[in-house]
Amino acid sequence: MSVVKILEILAESTESWEDATQAAVTEAAKTVENIQNVYIVEMKAIVEGNKIARYRVNTKISFIVND
Fold first, then answer.
1. What is the DSSP secondary structure assignment for residue 27, as one 8-state letter?
2. What is the number of domains present in the chain?
3. For residue 56, what pLDDT is reported?
4. What local confidence, expressed as pLDDT, does residue 66 receive?
5. Could you tell me if 65 and 5 are in contact, meaning their C-beta atoms sit under 8 angstroms apart?
6. Which domain holds residue 47?
7. 36, 25 contact by CB (below 8 A)
8. Domain holding 54: CATH number?
9. What angle do CA 39, 41, 45 make, to 5 degrees?
10. Are 45 and 55 in contact (CB under 8 A)?
11. Residue ranges of the chain with per-residue pLDDT less than 70
């Protein structure tokens, strides 16, 4: 029987929500193995000078715990 854990990570990018999501996965992968999914819980954009300056995501990353 597998056990799945969920890690919540907030990440930011100046490029896109996709890039922010990848940053969250990349950071989690530094210390976690067997990442299975990433869920986008919330997306937020920071506006400066009438333009989007930063993209932020709140993610939940699920991974299988090794026996």
1. H
2. 1
3. 98
4. 77
5. yes
6. 3-65
7. no
8. 3.30.1660.10
9. 120
10. yes
11. 1, 67
What dihedral angle (degrees, nearest 10) is formed by the CA atoms of 34, 38, 39, 41? Answer: 110
pLDDT score, position 67? 63
What's at 67, amino acid-wise? D
pLDDT value for 2: 81
Using DSSP, state whether 7 is helix, strand or coil. Answer: strand
Say which residue the tokens 């990018």 belong to.
13
Distance between CA 38 and CA 29 in Å, rounded? 12
Q: Nearest-CA neighbor of 65 among 20, 1, 4?
A: 4
The tens digit of pLDDT for each residue in 40-57 reads: 999 999 999 999 999 999
Q: Which residues of 35-63 are buried (b: 16+ CB within 10 A; e: fewer)?
A: eeebeeeeeeeeeeeeeeeebebbbebeb
